[in-house]
Amino acid sequence: MSEYENILQQIRPFGPFQVRLFVLVSFFETPLAWAMLVPIFTAANPGFFCSGINLSFNSSLDDDVCERNKTTCPSLSANTEFTSIVTEWHLICDLKYVGELITSLQMVGVGIGAFITGQLADIFGRKKILFAEYTLLIIFWFSTAFAESWQVYAALRVIVGALVGGCLVVNFVLPLEFVTPRWRTFCGCIGFWAVGLMTLALWAYFIRDWRKLNIAMSCSSIVLLALWWLIDESPRWLLIKGHFKEAERIIIKAAHFNKRPVPNCDGLCQFVKKEQFLREDRKKYSYYHLFSSFRLAIGTSICMFGWFVSSAVYYGHNFNSKNLAGNRYLNVFLSGIVEIPALLLVVLINNRLGRRYTSALFMLISGLASFSILIVDLSSQCYS
Asked: What pTM did the predictor assign?
């Protein structure tokens, strides 16, 4: 919609109004990171011991040995450093898979939520869906603290994952529709997700009970609902849906905020009406059309595989940080810090190299780094 982008150029493509909206929308990323990554701590195993017998229970034990020791143990107790779903429901020995299973089910929910929310946001608007799903997220996230079994907790985490995935989709798209293409890389990369990861470590450090941790984080996230009165709907979406007056009101508001003359929107209005007329004769598009030709199917498959690999590596490393040596809280905090220079680097080189070369370069570096972990691990086993 070049006419709309011309309007954005007139009122400033990334002026104070867009910066303000970008920051406000990005605030959502911090509690979304908490909700997504809290299993790093709530699914961790602090270790168990048998009272009166010199036996310990950890993930390195063989299943049969672990189960025999558990059977002969008169009183099984968990270390008191912190509580988690593992200590709550004794998810060890034959149940040690449950923690990872719940995390995997949560990520399935993320995919489902992202898939559905894209369509919902196109129908009902970005702002409404963002706040509706965020409200539901707080409710179900809060409810996880009162689960009485790991099965109920798992079901709630699937819903939480779906709502986080949905919020992330809208959270990503909304600021992009207020800026010109030049600023899309910046708005798409920079945000407060890394801040959420760092502050998650602080939450978990000071609140060691997994139920209280979920209650505290979910309740503190309610404050962002007040942003409903500060965040505007996407003018681009409003124009596509024919809500010209509402879109014009937001454009005028942005022009005043950016201290720019109010642009003449008559040409944009005529363009939108023409597009609506032509759209009636065009066929409707769906996800199916991404695979409607061989070339489209190849391109779509490559992009989807890239997204899958990137997500698997990123969340795999994060969720596995609870098993790293050293201080678990410091490890998570540092994993958030290292994201900041990485994101800044993407912003600096993406518009110069282009998206294909930038993606290929970073995936190559990530792949080599991940593969080196295997080499180091195998080498350490050979020398041990």
From this structure: 0.89
